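Researcher: Please translate sequence to structure tokens.
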Amino acid sequence: MESNIYEAGVLENRMSGAAFNLWGMLFGSLLNPPKIYVLGLDGSHWNGICNFDLMYIKGIRFGITKATDVGSATKKGFVDDKAIYNYEAMGDAGLLRGGYHWLDPMYGAPEYQADFYLNEFYSKYPTELPPALDFEDNNVISWNDALWKAQKWLEIVERETKRLPMVYTSNGYIANFLKSKAGFLERYPLWIAHYIQRSYPTIPAPWSKAIIWQYSDKGDYPYYKWNSPVKYGKSWGSGSSYLDMNWFLGTYKDLLAFCDDVKPPVPTPPEEDNILFQAKCIVHSLYKRSGAGIIYPTGGYLVKGQIVNVYEIKNNWYRIDPIEQVWCSGYPSYMIKLN
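Model: Translation complete:
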């Protein structure tokens, strides 16, 4: 059976929601990816160490990292512990980059949160994509207060960067606000989160369109799979089984224009000439870590019989990626040298 986006849209218009969901479960995998949209991802420390080179090879062309937040315990701003790594690795892989601030409606004045994002991330790590505000936290003093904080953050960041920030949110979250008070959001590009078994999202008022659609949080492609227990993040290069998937709702040329016509980063090719030797995993599974020691976070694992290149040795730990800090134990009871 052949299917395409147009047919899916027609079907949804003619079917009840339940019937379309059933159709999606049966035939959703046959939906073709859109020909003009651009595939992207967003991530944070929850994704661990990601292989952005693999993501680029598989067709992803932009990535948005969590940049900053406010700690509920400390009441102070912090930079996500994967923000700098993601920024640099995305650039090396050739992805257009973005960085978002999670707005904390309970702790931290909006002026403080905007300044922290600008001073600790954006001014040091300028992104091709515009700044972005993650507007979804339900822990509010009041809904009016949360909306005011979002407005102040957006105004400050727009003034200081001379760019219109994006707003990441969902239909359910925006429903908490009075339409008469949320109208100012319309001028900011919408990055909508909507996981639904179809080929387009629902757009909440006051917006009439979205610029980016986050359609899945578990690596589905090309669209969300209804009630699927399978998570595909690692197959895309995420260090976690989860991965937020996004469509930029336009062409790559449109995406570059949205990024103010910047030139995309040039991928850095792996340096294969500095291989020290190859090693083979001889245990059932062996953690990969972000540094040479068990104190570093894990991000996937090797399996028994898997052969890897070794690029650096440090205290009986092997770096097994030519670019990224991906390490595993080199003890003889875990790995054996092949040459």
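Researcher: Any highlights?
Model: Residues 143-161 form the longest helix (19 residues).
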